[in-house]
Amino acid sequence: MMKYILSVDQGTTSTRCIIFDRSGKVVSSAQQEHLQVYPRPGWVEHDPLEIWQRTQQVIHQAVTQVGLDPREIGSIGVTNQRETTIVWNRQTGQPFHNALVWQDTRTKDLCDELMRQGGIDRYRSRTGLPLATYFSGPKLAWLLENIPGLRSQALSGDAIFGTVDSWLIWWLTGGPAGGAHVTDVTNASRTMLMDLQSLDWDADILSDLGIPSQMLPSIVSSSSLSAYGITLEDGPLNAEIPVCGDLGDQQAALVGQACFLPGEAKNTYGTGCFMLLNTGTAIIPSNSGLLTTLGYRFSDAPAVYALEGSIAITGALVQWLRDNLGLIERSSDIESLAETVEDNGGIYFVPAFSGLFAPHWRSDARGVIVGLTRYINKGHIARAVLEATAFQAREVLDAMQKDSGVHLQALKVDGGMVSNELLMQFQADILDVPVVRPRIPETTALGAAYAAGLAVGFWSGLDELRQQYQVDHSWHPQMEASQREDLYHGWLKAVQRTLNWIE
């Protein structure tokens, strides 16, 4: 009998396995970090084999620490850091190179070259995306150009490509022994290679980038009983369990937050920050620097689309304060340090470490701290670090409301930073809308579980999932309008100071 759904949440800094029961409650969880590799400034890599090893370990830990019978697990869902790019050998499972992480900027020259014809929006009408180092397509093109022998292996069918979801599903369903080479519509929509209307790979873009189509995974629904495969008896679960769900991490959080109606939005506060607005079955082009992307597709139902604002550095800025400057010992210490001062002291910290993402898309930008005086202390810096996240979210929400015509009534929030009360209150103040945190904070893993569970009938449908949503805490705006706009005006001035640094 199905009692549980298992979710693998493979993120930028760690891999988690969470097991949920029918009420969406966490039964067991395990988490392990993996190494961040920085070969050169702007280059960010992961070891794909380490990620697969960590995945097996956390699955084993989550199952065994509470003594579950794996046969009681109805299905498996996978969610992942999205644009991170892996190429591996179909026969052996060996990667040809480390994974190129979504933050990696080594493809700037290639993107600039592509922009010379058609500009930054050359492919936007088909893919919903601007030309940017963020996406998988240019990363795959870079690997094909720079890894000796890779192109010939790709042409012969031995070298295959995938984002991290494809890599893990391939291994979970057998690897070299016939593993399923698939990706879902949400992850495919982040490659800059998929046409939003046809939900298929775009032959013209593949030709422009020199990518052989035989490298690419099949594009499938986010929730499907037949499209993926099953785990093997000698795999990490020692049982045959269907893998039925696959969503990019931000779309998984949209599903986990039960944002199933057009106009509902969520913001995830992690390494970066990602706001998604459900636009229903309508593909809404952005004129304000947002991404038009897939929200989800369940089985054979029509695809649901979304507008997304992607911010590269939010939680990563807190980690930088901890690891590079040593101002705090633990990331959670930032709140108490920021509370030692009344305000930011007049400083702003714009963390354009790898350029600016939405709504600017400027790879020439670099981080700045502006407004420094002798008055400033480490408390002001900590506060400016937290406020940077909220200000960036305000820029994205303004763009979202402009594109969609929807005035948001409340923002559902999740991710590691939502336990920070100071940040959440400031977020409500600077947005001038209530901010709502759900009772189950593991929304990304929950969304992947929902996708997998729907496929096998573990949950009856979206109405049941909507009824499970419960609010843990809400923050309401308390700031005067004049103060809000003065602070935001200062932020926009600070952003201008980051531009044109890289020539």
Folded structure, characterized:
- The protein is α+β, with helices and mostly antiparallel strands and 503 residues long.
- The protein has 16 helices and 23 strands.
- It has helices spanning 48-64, 108-115, 124-127, 136-146, 150-156, 164-172, 185-188, 203-209, 249-256, 315-323, 333-338, 378-404, 421-431, 443-455, 462-468, 481-496; strands at 4-10, 14-20, 26-33, 45-46, 73-80, 85-89, 99-100, 159-163, 182-184, 194-195, 200-201, 218-220, 229-230, 242-248, 265-269, 273-280, 291-296, 304-311, 348-350, 368-370, 411-414, 435-438, 471-475.
- It has a 7-stranded mixed β-sheet with strand order 17-18-16-15-21-22-23. Strands 3-2-1-5-14-13 form a 6-stranded mixed β-sheet, with helices on both faces.
- Strand 2 (14-20) and strand 3 (26-33) form a beta hairpin.
- Helix 9 (249-256) packs across helix 14, helix 10 packs antiparallel against helix 12 (378-404) and helix 12 packs across helix 13.
- It is globular, with a radius of gyration of 22 Å.
